[in-house]
Here is the input.
Amino acid sequence: MDNPILFLTILLPPFLGALVIGLTGRYLPRKLPGILGCATVLVSLAASIRGFVDLHHVEGALLEADFGVWFAVAPLTVRFHFLLDPLASFMTLVVSGVGFLIHVYSIGYMRHEARDERFFSFMNLFTGTMLTLVLAGNLPLMFIGWEGVGLCSYLLIGYWFTDGAKAAAGIKAFLVNRIGDLGFLIGIFLLVHAIGTVDFQALAQPALFESVGAGLLCGIGLCLFLGATGKSAQIPLYMWLPDAMAGPTPVSALIHAATMVTAGVYMVGRLGVLFAASGVLPIVAVVGAATAFFAATMALTERDLKKVLAYSTVSQLGFMFLAMGCGAYSAGIFHVYTHAFFKALLFLAAGSVIHALHGEQDIRRMGGLLRKLPVTGTTFLIGGLALAGLPLLSGYLSKDEILLAARTSFVPLWLLAELTALLTAAYVGRLVWLVFFGKTRIEAAAWAGVRESPPVMTGPLVVLAAGAALAGYVNLPHVVAHEGAALLKRFLAIAGEQAITASAAAEVAGLVVSGLVCFGGLALAYGFVVRRRAQLHARLARPGALGRLHALLLAKYFVDGFCMRYLAGGARKLAGVVHFLDELFVDAFLVRGVFGLLVRILGEATRLLQAGRVQAYGMALVLGGAAMLLYLLLSEIPW
Amino acid sequence: MLAPTFLTGPAPLELALAPLVLVITACVVLAAALFRRGSEEERLVTLLVALGGCAMAFLALLQLLDRPGEAFAGEIQADNFGVYTGLLATVATGLVLLGVLGHTRRYGAGWGEALSLMLLSLAGILLVCMAGGLLALFLGIEILSVAAYGLTALTRRRGRSVEGALRYLILGAMASAFLLMGIAFAYGATGTTSIAALAPAQKLAHLDLTALELLALGFLLVGLGFKIGAVPFHTWVPDAYEGAPTPITGFMASAVKVAAFAAILRLVYTPLGTAHLAGLQNVLGVLAALTMVLGNLVALVQTNFKRMLAYSSIAHTGYMLLGVISPAGGPGAVLFYLAAYVPAVIGAFMVLVIIGRDTEDLEELGDLRGLAREHPALGLAMVVFMLSFIGVPVTGGFTAKLAVFSAAVDNGYVLLAVLGIVMSVVSVAYYLNVVRLMYIPAAQRSWYRGPARIGERAILATAVVVLLVLGLVPGEVLEGALDAARPLELLALK
Here is the structure.
């Protein structure tokens, strides 16, 4: 059903907000940019809810809007076509809902900044482009949103651009994303070449792919997946996300945890039929599981509060891709949704801690903060336990579905995923303990000044904490809920999803194992971090396998060093050679030499001619005309 | 009972309404100028009258959209091709008039004459765009040319102006002779002056008119090649562009060019033209190559901004000729190219007009030095125009070049398309030189002071927005252009 008004009310307000705040924010009263920014997202949220409700009354559960032709290059016609199906509707709810809470929180977080209109303008622009990405009805339109969110991410990571390191982090994110985007683009081109359509509705027809060669199809899938790894920080393109924490914390929560980084997962779900047909799903699953595991190990030793959460995000995104790779698309999207709640909560609560400590991010210089920050601490604890997979919280339910899918498709991946879940609970336990419990390691003078954040910041925390605890109940396992089970899965009904069949006993076993793994991880953390911290440090200090492992993890497997040394170094050498060639051959020889001489001769010759007399001009006209006539006559008349 | 007009097609007078309105407005303006030549207020009023004439012509043309018809023994016809080109030329003229809104003092001498000549010229242009017969075509071309000669010589006290106009007149007369000769041969070969009926005669054993047909086409092409400014018939362009007052140059580079391309497209895509299409394509292909190479290379060494833009306009003629010789998709691409070229060229000349407001016409490249630092908005607009000339993505120039070059490739002119792309790369040097000059500091500040006037702002903003729209969302306009030109293509592909 066509409903252009609905789409306009979802999409336009954030863009308008970005424009108005960006252009006039300087002249507005101090607090107005923030309030305006929240208001526009609230309008989007209301419209998204309306769309969600409408969807239940529409035949085929599909709303669409067409705003004319964008470009037409035969045989391809790309239109401004948006569609709202259950999957898109669900994502718009997450984006605008969580986005709204984070906008509200930002009013409090940014209040010490002299000016914040640039911040809210970018945040609104981000929301608008992210909604474009989600609602796009074809790949090029999605690519606009895709590039748009990348741009906003870059702008906001480098928000404090006078700080060189932060600006550099923005550039790193942008560059790494370029590689993925290039893959995405090539994937689109290959798709046009192979099939000739880029419309999502057309691409949901499995019959479309039958006539395409397996190799080409696999190439398309791989290129598109490369795009997904860039945006969603998976191996090999994950390095930018930890650095992206240089941006303000609400940015980390909105862009680098809840929404943008899940765009890759969303894209795989959108193109579910294509991915299933292309045969790259096993690769998706392996990459996801491997990323989940390695990122979790790195989170174990990280000392920066936000970076622990960043590695945890990378790891959780890995879980989502594992689900996608197993064909359990709805499980992946389910985890996107629960993760949006608890990870946004964790980041915002972390932001509240950092805010209270005036910028301190090193967890070795925290501790005991629960007493000083009761609301922040409690909500962080809830978010952390949801992330660790404590039974009955949202993360437990969504992660369990992924583990079930992994177990039914490939057992080694399942084992790796369970191990990762164990590590997850362990690093969450470590983090929570070091920040909020035990004796404080903050100096007494600073300790006295620690204050809980204002209600405009803690309010969103409480709402998100409720979400982190309860969000999972929309998608309960069969064995528990019987008829009411898997509501979300049935609602989403993603095309290309593979059915997962498991007996009741298997489901129960999975639930029990997940619970045990969580408690096991927490127990590990308790054992090493709380009880035997001194012994652990002593062991690590001594040379040995454990010490070396610790050093390896602290250095993040030396990946950044490797990239700088070999990739960046190689590129620099290549640039040197090219520069030399350009200077010597192109500039000096071609441009200034051969070509320059030619131009000068021609130019002077024409100048002489042009300076000249009208007779010469007339002669040129007549001679040229005569030559033309002669040619025309000679070419067709046999003499 | 009379049926409503939209069922029967437009009435004869309706078809001729737009040129008629313009001629009448021109007479009114001229009469006013004869009897009252004086205050600035009076000049402003005449300008508004002229603008009103343009607006009425625009509406009259708009009425004819999607309502094909012909009248006056087929000499005037309305099809979407003619209406689109006519609308484009009218809008271009209106923009130029809007641009001189704040310059009543500066172009004081001959104000009324200039306005009426421009309106008359536009009437001729519309006649060319909507010509259904060779006579109307010739009439239109003469009206627009004679008016253009006068416009070029407008600033009589400047030697270059008169010199350029005189050259233009002499060479233009020669070109008209070629054109008339072509029309005569065409009538001799086919027995008709109707463009649509211009078809090769039945071949008989004792009578082969092929030579006559070829002569007709050849002469016509020389005459029109002169009007579009293709090498080697381009020699008048730099002198006339440099000699004319800058707003007039903008008018000649936009509206007049539209008419010339409308005429050449109409004549190549007649049954007569398509019967000898291979030969015409070869000839015009060579002209295109020469035009692109010479226009771009000579533009590189110019120091005068107006002369540089004159050679750049020659270069763009070359690119568009690629579209003319590509039957599948080419004519539509040329229409789109014109739509993207017109705002950029008017905008570029208008920047020149604006900065010279308080002095006299500034036209050296050096005059632009430091402009963007003093007037950031003007500088930015100029950057957009230059980028569009180059054909950088997100500007209309990119889409236009893409359309023309891909049409050329589709029709097998790969080498010419590559040459066009290489020449576009060469053109980066002189277009970006303008940008470079604008952003380096300068000591001299001879250009205008104070804020830009409303008409000037309106023009520049319109031009920039149109260029960005054509670059970002060209879909509907491109389809409109391709649809309008489809009848021409069908004729060639038959």
